[in-house]
Amino acid sequence: MKHLKSLNKFFLKYKWRLVIGFIITVAARIFALFYIPLAGRSTNIIENYINGEITDIQIVRDELAWNILLIIGATLIAAFFTFLMRQTFIVVSRHIEFDLKNVVYKHYQELSLNFYKKNRTGDLMNRISEDVSKVRMYLGPALMYSVTTLTSSVVVLIFMIEAAPLLTMYTVLPLPVLSFAIYKISVAIHKRSTVVQQYLSKLNTFTQESFSGIAVIKSYGIESQTNENFTELSNGSRDKNIALVKVQAFFFPLMVLLIGISNVLVIYIGGRQYINGLIDLGVIVEFLLYVNMLTWPIASIGWVTSLVQQAEASQERINEFLDEEPEITNPKQTPDDIQGDIAFKNVNFTYDDTNITALKNVSFEVNSGETLAIIGKTGAGKSTILELIGRLYDVEDGEITIDGRNIQELNLESLRKSIGYVPQDAFLFSDSIKSNIKFGKTDATDKEIIEAAKNASVHKNIVGFSKGYDTVLGERGITLSGGQKQRVSIARAIIHDPKILLFDDCLSAVDTETEEEILSNLFRISTNKTTIIVSHRISSAKNADKIIILEGGQIVQQGTHSQLLNQEGYYKELYAKQLNEKEM
Ligand SMILES: Nc1ncnc2c1ncn2[C@@H]1O[C@H](COP(=O)(O)OP(=O)(O)OP(=O)(O)O)[C@@H](O)[C@H]1O
Question: Which CATH architecture has domain 342-583?
Answer without folding.
Answer: 3-Layer(aba) Sandwich (3.40)
